[in-house]
């Protein structure tokens, strides 16, 4: 990973991270390790872990990222159906995320995906108001 990865130290300075297979220890029976090297502006941290622990860390990071992205915004935002983007989450009791939106004249065909993984397509007038609980930033 490079310093442009969005990871920063407590002061907001970029932190370079390198994740590599670690060199096995002297003991040939030792478990394989993953090397994790963090290089903040003030020094360097070197850690290692088993592949299993690396998978657990990755799963926890993914879970935290999804929770953060799916957290309700301060207040819902309403957009026209024609301005929906992939990743927008509809306000309501159940999670519904935009997979795609295709405009066909004055009609927008939106493919939604539920939290359970089901997908379906609905048609809306391009100027129909859709209330979202979360909107991803432009360019994502």
Write the layout of secondary structure elements.
Layout: E1 16-21, E2 34-39, E3 45-49, H1 51-70, E4 77-80, E5 89-90, E6 96-104, E7 107-114, E8 119-125, E9 129-134
User: What general form does the structure show?
Assistant: elongated
Helix count equals 1
Strand content is 35-45%
Mean pLDDT metric: 82
Q: Specify the helix fraction band.
A: 10-25%
Instruction: Calculate the terminal CA-CA distance, rounded to whole Å.
Output: 19 Å
**What are the low-pLDDT stretches, counting only 5+ consecutive residues below 50?**
none
Reading the helices and strands in chain order gives EEEHEEEEEE
Biggest β-sheet description = 3 strands, antiparallel
Radius of gyration: 21 Å
Structural class of the helices, strands and pairings?
mainly beta
Assembly level: single chain
Largest sheet: spatial strand order:
1-2-3
- Tally the beta strands: 9
Describe this structure in words.
By secondary structure, this protein is mainly beta. 14% of the residues lie in helices and 38% in strands. The chain contains one helix and nine strands. It has one helix at 51-70, and strands at residues 16-21, 34-39, 45-49, 77-80, 89-90, 96-104, 107-114, 119-125, 129-134. The strands form three sheets. The protein has a three-stranded antiparallel β-sheet with strand order 1-2-3. A three-stranded antiparallel β-sheet has the order 4-9-5, with no helix packed on it. The protein is elongated, with a radius of gyration of 21 Å.
Notable characteristics:
single chain; 140 residues; mainly beta; 3-stranded antiparallel β-sheet; 1 helix; 9 strands; elongated
